[in-house]
Amino acid sequence: MKKAVIVFSGGVDSVCAASYLEPKYDLYGISFSYGQKANKEIGTAKKLAKKLGLVQHKIVDIGFMKNLYGDSNVLTSNKIKIPEKFDYSIVVPIRNAVFLSVASAWAYTINASIVAYGAHTGDKNYPDCRPMFAKKLESAFNQGEIDGIESGLRKGIKIWSPYREGLSKSDLLKSGFKSLGDAIFDSWSCYLSKKFHCGNCESCNNRKIAFAKAGITDKTRYL
Question: Which residues contact 189 (CB under 8 A, 6 or more apart)?
């Protein structure tokens, strides 16, 4: 079976994207600790990687990024209040480019054919989630390995996302719930690391809306 490397945060989008790909690929998950407030997602990713039967799951510590990001965004800064709806302060500068660069390096090493992340059509406010970004990054990475690809030593990669297939968050939830059942509620979407989801941040609100649109009773525990 073909191999796929997936950026696996432990959030509902990456979990559902993994379950969507699992029938066709041997999945290799990679999670990043980058100084995010929501560090609870790392433990969640470990548990769900086992549940999904990922061939390997690596956790990469890039905590130094917190210092580089400073107070540029609410996900790594303790000085900015997390908004309840989208605000550009939520955008972590080219976060997906950083993640996908490392994930792609691993993919070339193990001859995986795709590198996946959970961006969907509802992520239109995030430039590094859009298909145009993924296509350009894919082209750049393959150009950076062109000699190895042409010699047959490396495989060219495709950067895949649900967004590139026109899938929404609720589409992903339907697919994930069909495959994982109630385990889908073990995913972590909140921008904070409390005992339960805060229920107020933009990500929690998007989670609630998506479950409602998918017609799935949301069993997530919110504060």
Answer: 11, 12, 197, 203, 204, 206, 207, 220
